[in-house]
Specification:
Low-confidence stretches: none
CATH topology: TIM Barrel
CATH class: Alpha Beta
Strand content: 15-25%
CATH architecture: Alpha-Beta Barrel
CATH superfamily: Glycoside hydrolase/deacetylase
Largest sheet: 8 strands, parallel
Amino acid sequence: MDGVIYVFLSHDVDWSRRGPGLEHVLARRDRFDNCVVRRVLEEEFNPYFNVPEVMDVEERFGVASTFFFRPTYDDGLDVSCYEDVIRDLASGGWEVGLHINDASSAESIAEEKMAVEGVLGSRVVGCRAHYLRVREESYRMFREAGLKYDSSIKSFKDRIDVADMGFRLIHGIPTFPVTIMDAYLFTYMHVPEEEVVRVVEEAIDLALRRGERIVTILWHDCSLRMRGGRMYGKLVEALASREEVKVVRGVDLLEVVKH
């Protein structure tokens, strides 16, 4: 690998286009500004659907990331509810991956992969399991299903650690541990909103000191209007401003890890 830090920027699309529903949002109203809550009440606004906003941020700073979509969602809608969004992502240079619901067999993984590919119109090469639910045997099944990389493991929830940097090769599948997850920053780590960028930049500095070259960030699209999660624009701006940082998609790392 060369002397840059590769930041794998990724997003899990956990909810369908309809979102979790009014009751769910209002039970978490303290996460949102009053203006957002008002729109939810008056307009049936879904504050969890923010893929276009993520795209706008990244386009503004000249980067592209990976979005992982579930083949079916908890409310019964399938991935086709995102067909227009997925086509926009693909045509704009973003990567669409599989957010696996059921990693219990190669057959179920292959079926889910085909469901997303049917909407995407091309091959899916990367995956992340929902809730990061994987076991070592899952990687053999990923390979059998035709997947080329994974990003479903994380060793620590309460801190940023070099163990969650770089990559591992499991049953021939490169897997990129989640170094930083938005949800963990604001729960287990108790990072204040105004400290988000500093904490992420410190993680980059730690990677540099320890000779790690891959940092993986998971920022859910549903968090973009929440306290803390709404710092995404400033975060991307900070990453794009660092000369030693190259923001990449998961598929881009397949060439990086060959060297």
